Amino acid sequence: MTMTIRNGPVVGIIGSPVGHSLSPTLQDAAFSALGLDWSSAAFEVPAGGGAAAVAAMRELSIRGLSVTMPLKSEVARSVDRLDAAASNLDSVNCLSLEGGEVVGLSTDGAGLLASLRREVGFDPAGATVSVLGAGGAARAVVDAFARAGASRIVVLARRSDAAAACAALAGEVGSVGGPDEAAASEVVVNATPVGMLDTSSSSSPSLLDPGTLGSGQLCVDLVYHPRQTAWLDAATRAGATTVGGLGMLVHQAALQIERWTGIEAPVEAMWSAAIEAMEAP
Fold first, then answer.
1. Domain residue spans in the chain?
2. Which residues form the catalytic set?
3. Helix (H) or strand (E) run with residue 246 in it
4. pLDDT, tens only, 213-263
5. Closest CA to 30 of 54, 50, 16, 11
6. Are 146 and 153 in contact (CB under 8 A)?
7. What are the φ and ψ backbone dihedral angles of 95, each rounded to 5 degrees?
8. What three-state secondary structure class fits 226?
9. Superfamily classification of domain 2-106+247-279
10. Whole-model pTM above 0.90?
11. Is the bond preceding residue 70 a cis peptide, omega within 30 degrees?
């Protein structure tokens, strides 16, 4: 466990592993900028420990917790209530202690949309979107775009059943598709880890060749380390506007800070702290 010791309320992150997590850095940066005497901690909690962590949160009056793998679905079944996104996804990335109840929330998708608004002024209403992948991150993205009024959301995945389940989160605007649909989308979101690899790698080929994208398209990679992935590099060379995953990380954390404190999060201070941490040797 790592912790910055202060006298006020405690928040943190649970999951395994969490030693590499930027969450305590982002949380501490926010509290410092806001002048709050709050503490942030990283708690190593393996699979199977989610229910105990929620109970400990109540017992110790821990104000809030970020939740990472492998606990996101497990914790969702242990809280007192879920917000709409977390209920739809059966996944929680944030816990908030409110009036003795532990509330489970999902801020990942909303964090991505906030990032796109900040970085490129993007409005998701009416947009056509393609999402690569059907795992937890992809599901959060599909849910968020659907809630924000996207007109069409296409999911590309290697497993047809997983793709169909992911697309179903978008209701009538969701469908399963392929590279042709993605090439015609305004927004393409890579929610797979392939962006970290050489795009020419035959061992982990991308679901979509980013070189087929181009001008007028917004391409997003949810990977945040490195900040500019090989997948984004290829999309940039093809003429697309590109956005990396660091903004999603910062903005989902900012939404959590706002939920816990009731104060607008100092996003610029959190961005600066994230960049400094990423560039540290």
1. 2-106+247-279, 109-244
2. 72
3. helix 246-261
4. 999 999 999 999 888 899 999 999 999 999 999 999 999 999 999 999 999
5. 11
6. yes
7. -115, 140
8. coil
9. Leucine Dehydrogenase, chain A, domain 1 (3.40.50.10860)
10. yes
11. yes
